[in-house]
Design brief:
The chain is built from 24 helices and 17 strands.
Length: 719
């Protein structure tokens, strides 16, 4: 080796050849000989080796192969290719089953697995008939050539004879012997043209035929989604929104986790759909009955509603399970994905300016059921209860029924709103009594309002044979009355569930006997419990309905055990998302055969729309005086009160005047008869008179009497 020593040089200008660090200024001789580095010295850094062209190519190929676009194209290719393959397999299986008894054997095994011996016998007979018919066809094929030859010979002879006869007729008609051959020559020419046409189109047919066959197989495979799951589109892979087919329903039932059901379906082979009725379109979804195998109860299916919904690629609120009349059967209603989140149309009360109502024969348009049919409800002589959690549409749903009924001028409303924020304010001028507020004083007034209705009911019960106009007593937020701890001046409790409760006792009295004389109650309440809604009160309602609730126990209190056991599930509705969706049980609304409840998506009518509807209803009436506070134990001026209850009416029947006076002040006028009314009017010079055969009171006469009487000449109601 050669050593190079540099002495006396300015080492500050030199740099180390390896690490480019500046060398010490006074360094000694630099030895450039390659020697092993000392243990305490840093190792020498080597430059990276050049990357091979093959490595770079491999990396590029891998990036291209794993690119999302390449994967998408690959899935597309595999998907459509497997559509053709799967379609061919499906067509082959269908062809095989069509020519053999395989279908009958499979159906026979399925019926046996389901324990349906009658159906198994029927399929066995069908299979036997199929085999006999197939044997006969094969026997017929053995003699078919002879028959075909005989038929061809006979046909040729008849045809030739016919052509000859036709030719003779032409020759005679045209007096030309050459026309004898004209029909035969025409047939020969027709055959020549047929052969010519076939020879022209045969080539394209041969070319296009296989492609048409492949297209048909592709269509079959695509319809059956025969490609692997990973190659299907994202929506099809998740199954969200997928159409409900028998195979999907059977698979969902098989995977519920009921071992007996799973075993029975496996023994049925791939025809477990034998359990299913035809799948029918029902509104924004489909409906199907599932006949369960022996050993599987309907309760086991109902208890697994969420899992069944997930197996069907639906949310829990999109699957409803009810019990039809058939034994060991569940009825599934499966919504189209997302359909229940779409709003329904507006109420006919909003869109139809000519809407009318009839308390006795009409039905209120409340909304739509899950099948998409109009949900119409009869209110004739029916007590009504609606419950639900706060802010879920309870008041709007109850108010919609009252707005429809307001178009029947004969109906009298007495309304107590124990929330008092103006939800019922539009009934000022429609209701004879309208109390709004949440305090104990309001509870007392509402209680007295209901007690007045009880007295009116008793009066009607003691006057049989009369045709009484409907009286509907509505109490919204009734839980305030039931839960009130207030007592009256006699220390009698207003609220509570005991027999001493004035409010409960009054409601119960109307439930017991009011229907017979057209006196009914409607109650709206939150959070149904034994304290907020006593058992004897809730069970006195003909129509029980519920919006979303928190627990099953609340749901049972709201609509009853029979409805819940039959599949009703207001506690499964979604709080905040299913506003206005009501589960209805009882009388008054159309139910499917064997069903105990129906789910209704009610029309929403906002406050402004409700006010406009109420104005139209007021126009159909003669005018109603609405009382907001019931005043008692005070000196009354009967003539002034008569003028008050007459309102804007030109004349009112005497009996109607007495009814309005009683509503105004029961203590003062509760015992009044026609004689009392006539006495006051005669003394004032405003005597009642006959109009159209009925005694009436004239507003103008009463107003004139008030204007001319002495200031201290008013009569006392206590006389």
């Amino acid at each position: 080796m050669t050593e190079l020593a540099v002495e006396g040089a300015d080492m500050g200008t030199l740099h180390h050849l390896d690490d480019h660090r500046p060398a010490p200024v006074d360094a000694g001789p630099v030895d450039l000989t390659k020697t092993a580095p000392a243990p305490d010295e840093a190792p020498m850094v080597k430059a990276p080796a050049p990357v091979s062209r093959w490595v770079r190519s491999g990396r590029a190929v891998r990036r291209a192969a794993t690119h999302e676009r390449t994967r998408t194209v690959g899935r597309l290719t595999v998907r459509h290719g497997m559509y053709v393959v799967g379609g061919g397999r499906i067509v082959a299986r269908r062809t095989w089953e069509g020519r053999t008894a395989a279908r009958y054997e499979r159906m026979l095994r399925a019926a046996e697995a389901a324990g349906n011996l009658d159906l198994a016998t029927e399929w066995e007979e069908r299979g036997a008939r199929f085999r006999a018919a197939r044997h006969q066809r094969r026997m017929d094929l053995l003699i078919a050539p002879v028959k075909a030859a005989k038929g061809a010979a006979a046909g040729a002879g008849v045809t030739a004879g016919g052509l000859l006869l036709l030719g003779i007729l032409l020759a005679v008609a045209n007096k030309d012997f050459a026309d004898v051959a004209t029909p035969t020559l025409a047939v020969i020419e027709l055959v020549r043209w047929i052969v010519l046409i076939i020879s022209v189109v045969w080539g394209p047919l041969v070319t296009l035929g296989p492609w048409a066959a492949l297209l048909g197989l592709w269509a079959v495979g695509r319809h059956q989604q025969s490609a692997p799951q990973w190659a299907l589109p994202a929506k099809a892979r998740t199954g969200e929104g997928a159409a409900i087919t028998p195979s999907i329903v059977v698979t969902a039932m098989r995977d519920l986790g009921v071992s007996t059901l799973k075993k029975a379906i496996k023994e049925m082979g791939d025809v477990g759909a034998q359990m299913l009725s035809p799948i029918t379109i029902a509104g924004c979804g489909v409906e199907v009955d599932v006949h369960l195998p022996s050993g599987v109860s309907t309760e086991e299916i109902q208890a697994r509603r969420r899992k069944l919904a997930e197996n069907l690629n639906r949310h829990e609120h999109e699957v409803f399970i009810t019990i039809p009349p058939s034994p060991r059967t569940v009825r599934l209603w499966i919504a189209d994905s997302g359909a229940l989140d779409e709003p329904i149309g507006p109420s006919p009360l909003v869109t139809d300016p000519d809407v009318s109502a009839n308390y006795k024969t009409g039905r209120a348009p409340w909304g739509q059921d899950l099948r998409g049919d109009a949900a119409l409800i009869s209110l004739f002589q029916r007590m009504l209860l609606i419950t639900g959690l706060s802010n879920q549409g309870k008041t709007a749903s109850l108010r919609a029924l009252a707005l429809w009924l307001a178009f029947d001028p004969k109906v009298e409303f007495r309304i107590g709103d124990l929330k008092g924020v103006g939800d019922w304010a539009m009934f000022d001028g429609l209701a004879t009594v309208l109390i709004q507020g949440p305090t104990d004083d309001h509870v007392l007034e509402v209680t007295e309002m209901v007690e007045d209705a009880v007295r009116e009911m008793n009066r009607r019960l003691q006057a049989p044979g009369e045709d009484f106009d409907p009286l509907v007593v509505i109490v919204d937020e009734a839980q305030v009355a039931y839960g009130s701890g207030a007592v009256d001046k006699n220390k009698i409790p207003l609220g509570g569930a005991k027999a001493t409760s004035r409010y409960f006792r009054a409601i119960k009295a109307i439930h017991d006997q009011g229907r017979a004389v057209n006196v009914t109650t409607w109650e709206g309440t939150q959070d149904p419990t034994n304290e907020n809604l006593p058992k004897r009160s809730r069970e006195g309602n003909h129509i029980r309905s519920s919006l979303v609730l928190g627990t099953e126990s609340q749901a049972r209190m709201a609509i009853g055990d029979a409805a819940i056991d039959g599949g009703a599930a207001p506690h499964k509705l979604r709080q905040g998302l299913d506003k206005g969706t009501v589960v209805v049980a009882g009388d008054g609304i159309k139910l499917a055969a064997g069903q105990t409840s129906v789910t209704v998506r009610t029309h929403y009518i906002d406050t402004d729309q409700a006010a406009e509807i109420a104005d139209r209803a007021k126009a159909a009436r003669n005018g109603v005086t609405t009382l907001h506070v019931v005043e008692r134990d005070e000196e009354r001026d009967p003539l002034a009160d008569i003028a008050t209850v007459l309102g804007s009416d030109a004349r009112v029947r005497t009996q109607e005047v007495i009814t309005r006076l009683v509503a105004l002040n029961k203590d003062a006028y509760g015992k009044w008869s026609f004689i009392d009314l006539k006495r006051v009017l005669d003394d004032a010079g405003a005597e009642p008179y006959k109009s159209d055969g009925r005694m009436v009171v004239a507003r103008d006469r009463v107003a004139a009497a008030l204007a001319t009487r002495d200031g201290d000449g008013s009569a006392s109601a206590s006389d």
